[in-house]
Specification:
Elements lengths: L1 E6 L5 H10 L3 E4 H7 L6 H10 L12 H8 L3 H29 L5 E4 L14 E6 L2 H12 L3 H10 L3 H6 L3 E4 L4 H19 L2
Parallel strand pairs: 1-3, 1-4, 2-3, 4-5
């Protein structure tokens, strides 16, 4: 069983992933895998350098994500070029790790935590998609407190994301995070028990 876990800024997705890991799921973090795809031995490294120039390689021989970010930030077409290289590679690495975990223990639940799950189309490869949603106004307050970023920057990031309604339309399980962190944890645990119950042969 492979679950895709997603949600927007300050939705509580990472908290949900932590709880699922505590409950015994093998949690794969697409962000961490995303860092790994830039490693010099990976195919994506060479594709990124070819697409964006050798100046994206730092003095240590690795891709300088700040330099690369500067080339795609606020440039939709350039960002599209980058995601066309990186997203398939992340999907491949995630699939490899998921299959390795399931080969070790076929009864295990694997969770892929990914902010761009739906945008990248990875939901097609999941057995279930779990979406954590939060009211946009609540997300703004939480993100400002967590990241120390100004309100305007957060609102721009939210506006660029998929809406809650779009996420809900593609979800198998919707977890609304309107209350306290404890309430979110309790809800995730409830959904986990329901998952175990419906997964039994």
């Amino acid at each position: 069983m492979i679950i895709g876990l997603t949600g927007g800024i300050a939705s509580g997705k990472s908290t949900a992933a932590r709880v699922l890991a505590e409950l015994g799921a093998c949690v794969l973090d697409a962000d961490k895998i995303g860092h790994a795809v830039y490693a010099p031995e990976r195919q994506a490294f060479h594709q990124v350098v070819a697409a964006f120039g050798s100046d994206v390689v730092g003095t240590d021989g690795n891709i300088d994500r700040k330099v690369l970010g500067g080339k795609v930030f606020g440039k939709p077409e350039e960002l599209k070029r980058l995601t066309a290289i990186v997203w398939p590679e992340i999907a491949r690495m995630a699939a490899e790790q998921a299959q390795a975990a399931l080969a070790e223990n076929p009864a295990r639940v694997v969770v892929l935590e990914a902010a761009v799950m739906l945008e990248a189309g990875w939901d097609r490869d999941m057995d279930e998609v779990w979406v954590v949603i939060v009211d946009p106004e609540v997300a703004v307050v939480r993100a400002m407190a967590r990241d120390g970023v100004d309100e305007d920057a957060i609102r721009k990031r939210l506006a660029a994301q998929m809406s809650n309604a779009e996420r809900v339309a593609r979800a198998d399980v919707v977890i609304e995070n309107a209350g306290t962190p404890d309430a979110l944890e309790a809800r995730v645990r409830t959904e986990w028990q329901a998952l175990i119950a419906r997964s039994k042969p």
